[in-house]
Amino acid sequence: MKLTKYNHACVIIEEDGQKVIIDPGAFMPALPDVTGTAALVITHEHPDHFYPDHINDIVAANPDIEIFAAEGIAEKLPDLSIATAVPGEEMTAGSFTFTFFGGRHALIHKTIPRPNNVGVLINKAVYYPGDSFDTPNVSPQVLLVPTSAPWLKIGEAIDFIDQVKPKICIPTHNALQSEIGESLTGDWLRGICQKHGITFRHLPPSESIDF
Questions:
Q1: How far is C-alpha 117 from the geometric centre of its chain's CA atoms?
Q2: 156 by DSSP, 3-state: which?
Q3: Which of 55, 59, 110, 192 sits in a 20 to 30 Å window from 13, CA-based?
Q4: What share of the chain is helix, strand, coil (3-state, %, to 5)?
Q5: pLDDT tens per residue, the chain (211 residues)?
């Protein structure tokens, strides 16, 4: 499998000549080549994860695409066929199997509503939690770890890695960080990864890893 990280929270996974795109949000200035996409996953409705213009462009390039999204997303895109991703359920598209977890966005503040949010485990190998620290029921090969958000503190990210114990840890959700902040965060996460023998990989936008 090949994983490519793009701006902020968008990730593309490839296997057998097919792609899965996760959360092509508004922080991406432009889409990469999206042809050959079997599935699109939208974890929740916040614009840094959910940008209708990108979604429509992806669908136009892949008319037979399967779209899996948190509850409520389908209502915002009534012209598209979207399957609701239900935590605890498994769905398939092309060469990929998706298992969903969680259900709610992490708390930002008690006065701010929490939208629906799903974490997704792909082929039991890659786990992406959306905006949450909900854990999967397996230790995946690759864990994508949010590192900067209004709802997040770094100690929670450290605990998340400590609980999931993947083989490879890749930071994501990091557009809000300065270069100094990203370096500091990386040092903290690298420390917990070293404790468990986990490979820590910081991927700049458009950089890939094969596993």
A1: 11
A2: helix
A3: 192
A4: 20, 30, 50
A5: 999 999 999 999 999 999 999 999 999 999 999 999 999 999 999 999 999 999 999 999 999 999 999 999 999 999 999 999 999 999 999 999 999 999 999 999 999 999 999 999 999 999 999 999 999 999 999 999 999 999 999 999 999 999 999 999 999 999 999 999 999 999 999 999 999 999 999 999 999 999 9
User: What's the full length of the chain, in residues?
Assistant: 211
Q: Which two tokens stand for residue 170?
A: 């890749």
Entry pTM: 0.96
**What letter does residue 141 receive in the DSSP assignment?**
S
